[in-house]
């Protein structure tokens, strides 16, 4: 069994405000961290509250939380040199971003994650 060697947690928050005269956009509010605690907390929470399946993208199931405007997904990946990655995704949307597409956000995040995995040697 391969140990998890890399953890990535993505959080996207749809902002309520504008920055520097730019329109409010989820693209400028993407957080990435590498905390195992956050990943395990998310997995535990999602296991207890699986939410409703919304769609699948790139072989990954995206679910909508039952009690909040949040969407989540996770994946594990085999990496080079016998490594193993775990990635979690959480997207918060609210009334300010009705035109934001969860599917488009997930595609953007997955591509970012895959690029990061390519850099791991």
What does this structure look like?
By secondary structure, the protein is an alpha+beta fold. The two termini are 20 Å apart. The protein has one domain (6-119). Strands 2-1-6-5-4-3 form a six-stranded mixed beta sheet, with helices on both faces. It has helices at residues 36-48, 102-119; strands at residues 6-13, 30-33, 52-57, 60-64, 70-78, 84-92. The protein contains two helices and six strands, in the order E-E-H-E-E-E-E-H.
Layout of secondary structure:
Blueprint: E1 6-13, E2 30-33, H1 36-48, E3 52-57, E4 60-64, E5 70-78, E6 84-92, H2 102-119
Parallel strand pairs: 1-6
Antiparallel strand pairs: 1-2, 3-4, 4-5, 5-6
Cα-to-Cα separation, first versus last residue: 20 Å
Low-confidence blocks of residues: none
Which strands sit side by side, in order, in the main sheet?
2-1-6-5-4-3
Q: Kindly report the average pLDDT value.
A: 86
Helix and strand pattern: EEHEEEEH
Helical content band: 25-40%
Amount of beta strand:
25-35%
Overall form: globular
Radius of gyration: 15 Å
Query: Which class best fits the helix and strand makeup?
Result: alpha+beta
What is the number of beta strands? 6
Structure annotation, total helices? 2
Instruction: Determine the oligomeric state from the structure.
Output: single chain
Count of separate structural domains: 1
